[in-house]
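Ligand-bound model needed. adenosine-5'-diphosphate.
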Amino acid sequence: MNKTTELYSGKAKTVYETDSPDHLILEFRDDATAFDGTKKASLARKGAVNNQFNAFIMTQLQTAGINTHFVEQRSANESVVKRLAMIPVECVVRNIAAGSICKRLGLEEGQTFAEPIFEFFYKDDALHDPMINDAHILAFQWATADEIEQMKQLTLAVNNILKPLFAEAGILLVDYKLEFGRFHGELVLGDEFTPDGCRLWDADSGEKLDKDRFRRDLGNVIEAYEDVANRLGITLT
Ligand code: ADP
Ligand code: UDP
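Prediction:
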C-alpha cells in the first residue's frame, strides 16, 4: 500500500491517504505535546516506540474480539489502518484516581475506585476537551444511542483485556483514553493505545511509566515507554 496525499497532521501523528479508499497510513512522529498542545518537545525514538507499542496492543485487542482499525505495521513508525469517520469524543476509563478527576472532585492521586469509572470528553483542544455526557452526544448528533452504548461497553471491555496484561508485567493500568469511528456503518476502535494516552504505574514502586513523565518533567520519558514495552514482551526495532 502506498501513501498518496497527506490528510491531516495532528499533535503526534500524520495521517496519509493511500491508493486504497478504505485505508490510511498513520505515521507516528517523535513530537510530544501536553496541556492541549501548549507544551511541546521532540523525543528521539518516540514515533517508532509508540507505533510498535500500538501495533502490539491493537493486535492483542483484535485477538480478544475487539473490532479495531489496525491492519498492519508498515515500517518502524508507520501502520496501515482502516479509514474511519471519527466520532469527536474521547472515551476515558479510570481504575485509580489521577489527572483531571483529582482536580475536578478533590481526590488524592492513587485512590483505587470500587468500580472502573467511564467518562466522555469532547475532543477539542481550544475548549480544553470539556467533559460531556450522553445527552450532549445525542443533541449534537455525534453518535446514536446505540453507538454510545457500544463505546461504553467496548471501552470497559478493553479494561478487562489490558488490566491483566499489564498486571502480568508488574504494571498498574491507572486510566486510558480511546477514540472510535465508523467503518461502513460499523463502530470500530481507532487512533492509538500507547503510553501517551494512558497512565501506567510500576506496581511495586508506583513509578510513573507514561506521559506524566513528560507533563511533569520527570525525565527518561522514552526510556520508561521502552521499559513497559520490554516488560510486555514487545521486541522494539
Ligand atoms: P490530535 O488530532 O489529537 O492532535 P494525532 O496527532 O494523534 O492527534 O492525530 C491523529 C488523528 O487521526 C486524530 O485526530 C485521530 O482522531 C485521527 N485518526 C486516528 N485513527 C484514525 C482512523 N483510523 N481513521 C481516520 N482518522 C483517524
Ligand atoms: N488523555 C489523552 N488525551 C487527551 C486527554 C486525556 O490521551 O486529550 C488520556 C490521559 O493520558 C489519561 C486519561 O486520558 O491517561 C485521562 O486523562 P485526564 O482526564 O486525567 O486528563 P489529563 O489530566 O491527563 O489531561
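The radius of gyration is 17 Å.
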